[in-house]
């Protein structure tokens, strides 16, 4: 089995490093979501997208190497390949990568929930500005108040 060069473990160290960087970005993203700092989120999103793209490239390379080594291009295939190694040199790196991926998945899930809360809050604010669910608007197209007084008019005289 090929353990160096183009083998499945060849770029495992880089996958781990990239996954750690992604986890760090997800943690920063979560902090910015809590702080509602849209400008910081925009910058983090670009960096996150680049890291996700790199992780996809590295996983595709690992899958190709697994297939070339005669194993299935899956997590189970990677485990079978690792089990075939003597000595088990790459097992710890793979274990770390799986742990990082699980942590990133959980943080990403939490971030999605935070985004959902922000969206709901913004939708509620828009509903208030539009006058609530009845479809009434507080402001007309000219920016002036469009609210008409409710109740009876005052009759004098």
UniProtKB/TrEMBL annotation:
Gene Ontology biological-process entries: bacterial-type flagellum assembly
Chain segments annotated as coiled-coil in the UniProt record: 9-61
Name of the protein: Flagella synthesis protein FlgN
Entry's family note: Belongs to the FlgN family.
Pfam families assigned: FlgN
Role summary: Required for the efficient initiation of filament assembly.
Annotated keywords: Bacterial flagellum biogenesis, Cell projection, Cilium, Coiled coil, Flagellum
Xref: InterPro entries: FlgN-like (IPR007809), FlgN-like_sf (IPR036679)
């Amino acid at each position: 089995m090929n353990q160096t060069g183009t083998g499945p473990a060849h770029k495992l160290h880089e996958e781990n490093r990239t996954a750690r960087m992604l986890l760090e970005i997800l943690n920063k993203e979560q902090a910015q979501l809590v702080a509602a700092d849209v400008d910081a989120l925009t910058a983090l999103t670009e960096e996150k997208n680049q890291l996700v793209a790199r992780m996809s490239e590295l996983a595709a390379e690992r899958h190709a190497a697994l297939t070339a080594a005669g194993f299935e291009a899956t997590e189970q295939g990677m485990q079978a390949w690792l089990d075939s190694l003597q000595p088990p040199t790459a097992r710890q790196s793979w274990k770390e990568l799986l742990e990082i991926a699980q942590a990133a998945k959980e943080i990403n899930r939490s971030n999605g929930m935070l985004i959902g809360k922000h969206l709901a809050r913004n939708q509620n604010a828009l509903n208030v500005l539009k006058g609530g669910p009845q479809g009434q608007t507080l402001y007309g197209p000219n920016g002036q108040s469009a609210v008409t007084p409710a109740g009876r008019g005052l009759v004098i005289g």
